[in-house]
Amino acid sequence: MSPFGSGRPTFFQSISRVPDWPGYSHSHDTDTSESEEFVDNRQEVDDDEKLNSPSLSLVQRRKRSSVLVILGMSLVALLGALVGWFGAQKLSINKPAAISTQIQQAQVMEKPCGETPAQARARGCYFDVISFCWLPERCYDAELSQRFDGLTEWEWFVDPNRTQPLTHQQIMTGEHTGLYVNWEYHLLHCTCMWEKMHRALMGPHEKMAIDSYIGSYEHTKHCGHMLTSDRDVQLDVINTIILVKYPDCGMS
Fold it and tell me: Residue ranges of region Disordered (predicted)?
């Protein structure tokens, strides 16, 4: 049975609504006794009694008061320093994030590759075999796309019965849509799309933007659902349709 339920399978989008991720809670058994949960305060009471005792000399009381004043001032100074430090840390963390968001929003390219393969080629776009998206250079991870392409001998078919295969050369023209691929293609698409997001956000690939297709939170939830369900489906089962897409480059 298809992992997408009845009807036509779709490419990277489930027919049924992907359920929300279940919450996880960990129950830890504890055997903490009452004596471990409450701090013994008997010494503090004894100290207070000694402080107020008439047997203490005036000098001793003044000395004790001076020590308490110094300790109090030290604590206030320490708290002030900590507040200032945390405030500085907050500014140093949030300010670059805000600037990054502004820059990212300003660099969004809407439909940079047009809406047809001819328009995409004319605009210097690349066809990504992982996602079947036409992408400008700023959103195209050539290294990752080539690595995915070489993982195995991928197969693409015009029909679900595997009677009309297409060659790799035909696929890379980006002109064929609505093609059928196997379950393995779908799963590895998901893992590679997550890797692309990480490469774009971190490390030496930080200058690459994320396209609006893989940047969608719904896509992330969908891939999570696909990777954790239907584990009994064989990898070579044809149950996925590929559609050519022309997403925006960058996230708003």
Answer: 16-50
Question: 127-160, pLDDT tens digit by residue?
Answer: 999 999 999 999 999 999 999 999 999 999 999 9
Record the pTM: 0.60
Q: Which H, E and C letters describe 108-134, residue by residue?
A: CECCCCCCCHHHHHHCCCEEECCCCEE
Q: Contact 156/242 with Cβ under 8 angstroms?
A: yes
- The helix (H) or strand (E) run that includes residue 193 is helix 183-201
Of 226, 167, 230, 157, nearest to 193 by C-alpha is 226
Q: Is 74 helix (H, G, I), strand (E, B) or coil?
A: helix
**Whole-number Cα distances in Å, 9 to 13, 155, 157, 239, 252:** 9, 17, 14, 6, 30
Cα(161)–Cα(84) distance, rounded to whole angstroms? 68
Residue owning tokens 């696909």: 226
